[in-house]
Amino acid sequence: MASEPGPAPEVHGPRPGRARDRRGRGPRGVMSLPGPLSPRGAPAHRNPREAFDDLVAEVLTRLDHHFAREPDHVEVVVEEAPLLPPGWDEPVPRSIVNTAPGGFRIVIYRLPVVGRSRTAADLEEMVWTVLLTRLGEVWHHDPEDLDPRL
């Protein structure tokens, strides 16, 4: 007597929808930890400061050829937020340019830039815009002339 096949087993996977993000700290758990398929771990284990620093470094790497051609030395620094005087009623600046020994220093403020971005694509575009605008000021070029993406 042949047995009849039973119902096909159900395949269960992750729940549909977004992954859980408790208290706004980003993904946690086995998906972000190192494992056999991602020995160094997924990028989710980076903290927001490291991710922002990596984004700024990536943009600066794409702009390396301009740094080699321009005579003025430019240092780019990332800080959390500017120290504003009491009674400040203007929008918080995203960046500033200071003179430094032998050139200029561009300071990008992470929290104002991140706070004005809704998505990762917005954040990347804003970092590009801030850096190109400030470098254009220092080197007296139109920011569009410096942009390698065009």
From TrEMBL:
InterPro entries: Zincin_1 (IPR010428), Zincin_1_sf (IPR038555). Residues 15-26 have a biased composition (Basic residues). It holds the Pfam family Zincin_1. Residues 1-50 are annotated as: Disordered. This is Metallopeptidase family protein.
